[in-house]
Amino acid sequence: MMILIKNGTILTQDKNRRVIKDGAVLFEGETIKAIGQTKKVESLIKGKKLEKIIEAKGKVVMPGLVNAHTHLAMTLLRGLADDLPLEEWWFKKIFSAESKFTRRHVFLGSLLGGLEMIKSGTTCFVDFYYFEDEVASAVKELGLRANLGVGILDLETFAFKNSPESFVQFFELAERFRNDNLIRISLAPHMFQTTSRETYKKAKKAAGRFNCIMQTHLAETKAEVDFCRKKYGKTPAQILDKEKILDGKTLLAHGCHLDEKDIKILGKNKVSVAHCPVSNMKLASGVMPLARLEKAGVCLALGTDGSCSNNSLDMFGEMKFAALLQKSFFGDPALADSQRVLDMATINGARALGLEKEIGSIEPGKKADIIILDFDQPHLTPVSNIASHLVYCANGADVLTSIVNGRVVMENRKVKVIDEKKVLVQIKEILKLNS
Ligand SMILES: [Zn+2]
Predict the structure, then answer these.
(1) 2-63+362-415 maps to CATH 2.30.40.10
(2) What is the CA(14)–ligand 1 centre distance, in A?
(3) HEC sequence for 316-327
(4) Is the model more confident about 129 or about 91?
(5) How far apart are CA 80 and CA 252, in angstroms?
């Protein structure tokens, strides 16, 4: 059955970054069939029955956002450890809280994070955690699109330490979701301070067997780079390059501390980097050199990171911070313009996941991952440039309707796939919180 969105302003994010006024999008099942002026698209459906018409007058219709780096179940730890030095945050607070997580925690935390994403316009995300089979169950209930990274680390004292078991889980999940329409699996070694060089090599080999992405945290902190220089005599990027681990199927989070040689290496290997500006600012980790990485040929995507270091999953906020951080830090207001940042949150995110032919823009033949924002509001009036408004004025609460793979998962802010209130009660129960 077909669904028609009509009379809206369509921000296509296609090759020419076309914006269509009084536009329509027609999709059938999971696939976009036509876009264009409403009258023209309506003429294509004469005589055919529509399942639904979504009126989009005064609204902006755009591709769903891609959150290229998060740890979804960390929503349970939101606000637990703010305003602390990084090492204390990590090793004293976060690792010890996470070590008490059960499978049920990860499932419910993922449902909570998924709800937040649906309600703020994210339709596809990259996770990086443990018990990813539980995250997959949550994703299936929510109807989101995801790349789920099975986390691996060798740290002795950590509850989820066991690398061999993580590899087994990766093989099992990669096999189970090999032909899934919404879920893909990746392998995610944690970072060099917790994960050995040998484990990285094994991870790349295992990911290659299933043609999967390998993701990792890279050059997030100066301490990590110092650790690698001391232990291996090289930077994290140089170690991965030496081991031939970097390629177009590598997704690196952060990239704050990169020298010129590192940047050249990342560009040469056509890797993707998920920029996480809010997390980097909150933990005072550093600043990713956006313009230099882009110039070197790196695909730059955007991620929120987990809810402990952000503390929000709203990609609209992330876009604004991405733009402002570059301008402020490098002293150049022309850096990280709104169209560039919007690209990071849509088509570049899709490219980082190898999904650029399926999502990231609204074009015939692509999957219907679409969000609709209410632009008829004081804080979005008047409109001179839509990309600018999306980055500098809009927020997740402006998203009225979210569609993933042709399924309307939220309409007029009512989540249709799951009982939102029930999830909030379950979260309070598992955390033993009073309402
Ligand atoms: Zn992270």
Answers:
(1) yes
(2) 29
(3) HHHHHHHHHHHH
(4) 129
(5) 26
